[in-house]
Specification:
alpha+beta; 6 helices; 30% helix; globular; acyltransferase; transferase; GNAT_dom; Bact_Acetyltransf; Ribosomal protein S18 acetylase RimI-like enzyme
Length: 183
């Protein structure tokens, strides 16, 4: 085994813990840029009629009043973010009574596979007190996201699939939550 390969393998095992917390306004621009980059890299903005959504993803400040903006940092650098809707309101797309919703989750393309997305989803789950389930929508082309959600216990709900605009087909995933006494 070469010295370079040994060093690379050693570094891969040195994964630092990702810090996850509420984003502060000074981080909104970075979060929006990363989420839009992640959607572009994953092919989620390729469908006709979906290009406008990049601007929506970048505009974190507009959704911060109606939802929780959660950020993931590695060594103080923003590496991902998510919009979390703990209970209805204008930022909920598909959440029904008793459901929290995960929206606009993105991880910097060069940080994917390093636990950032997992940390963000787990934080949303931890913040879901009082909800009976968490739901989210994801595009059919987001195969990496599908694997993440399924690994964390989310299951597809085919009856709730939908299309916000023609050509953008969204799958629904849901995670049933146990009541606090069962945890």
């Amino acid at each position: 085994m070469s010295d370079e390969r040994q060093v690379a393998e050693a570094r891969a095992g040195e994964r630092r813990a990702v810090e996850v917390r509420d984003a502060v306004p000074a981080e909104y621009e970075a979060v929006g840029k990363i989420v839009a980059e992640a959607f572009f890299a994953d092919g989620q903005l390729d469908a006709p009629g979906s290009a406008f959504y990049a601007d929506v993803l970048r505009d974190v400040a507009s959704r911060a009043d109606a939802a929780e903006i959660i950020v993931a940092l590695d060594d103080g650098v923003v590496r991902g973010g998510v919009t979390f809707v703990p209970r209805g309101g204008p930022m909920a797309d598909i959440a029904q009574d008793g459901e929290a919703e995960i929206r606009m989750l993105g991880v910097a393309p060069d940080a994917q596979g390093q636990g950032v997305g997992t940390a963000l989803v787990r934080e949303c789950i931890a913040r879901s007190a009082g909800a009976r389930r968490i739901v989210l929508s994801t595009q059919t082309v987001a195969h990496g996201a599908h694997r993440l959600y399924e690994r964390l216990g989310f299951r597809r709900e085919p009856a709730r699939a939908w299309a916000p605009v023609p050509g953008v087909d969204l799958l629904c995933y849901a995670l049933e939550l146990t009541c606090p006494a069962e945890r």
